[in-house]
Amino acid sequence: MAKILVSDGIEKSAAEELKKMGHVIVDKSCTPDELLRQVQAVDAMIVRSATKVTREVIDSALKSKRLKLIIRGGVGVDNIDVSYAEANGISVTNTPNASSLAVAELAIGHMFALARYIYISNVSMRDGKWDKKKYEGIELSGKTLGLIGFGRIARETGKMAKAIGMKVIYNSRSGRKDGCEEFEYVPMEELLANSDFISLHIPYDKEQGTLIGQKEFEKMKDGVFLVNCARGGVVDEEALLSALNFGKVAAAALDVYEQEPTKNERLCMHDKVCLTPHIGASTIEAQERIGKEIVEIIKSRLN
Ligand code: 3PG
Questions:
Q1: How far is the CA of 230 from the centre of ligand 1 (A)?
Q2: What are the phi and psi torsion angles at 145 (to 5°)?
């Protein structure tokens, strides 16, 4: 039976199921030094986004040659040096289906929050104010939503937006998607120029770096709303701040940040920014589905 390090938590029933199967679970959030030690003593590890499985961590694991499998309970694997792990015989897998609805619902929730000032009127009422006139918003219905990236989460977001009455357009690095006739593929420039709301659904790619910076903001419609529930680093936070200050971007909603936990106070205190602490996949249902997928992966790979 396997010894499995769980460093960012796992849904309770999945942990119990793994124990019933006879595996030993080390449920421990590790400092970087502890992680270097722990990876030498386990056969598999399960992480979310907080644990950074760097080249150094993999080199440490290779000393004992015990670690065979890294499971990312979630979608993004940018916290794992996947190519280095795989080149050294450690396989890496994620659970790409389980959290699409949760992230899509958060993105839509953020759009409502921005359009109706929910995020900021909540703060002002706690301050004893009654700013009814100030918070006249807009309706999502009839507006154009531009999706950048068109994977599972973007498609769910598109379906929900369509149900609200939005027109949905998309752009994807890999081009037009077959079988997605209900949404219109447009070139990036067109998406930036024509969207009232832009929602990002692309992974962070170190080689490619920032996707939305000053140049892209300049091409957007005046008064656009921006939602990023994808990855920090995809949006240049300094460029976003100046786009907010110049009124180019009416308001932005962020679930992810260049650095997490973020220390960007100017962003966090900005009255045109709605914030959540990387909770896109943090629903009971999504974590249950992720837990089940993890159990299946372990059954097929380690039993
Ligand atoms: C993901 O990539 O699955 C999401 O960003 C969620 O990350 P988390 O599991 O660290 O919350």
A1: 9
A2: -105, 125
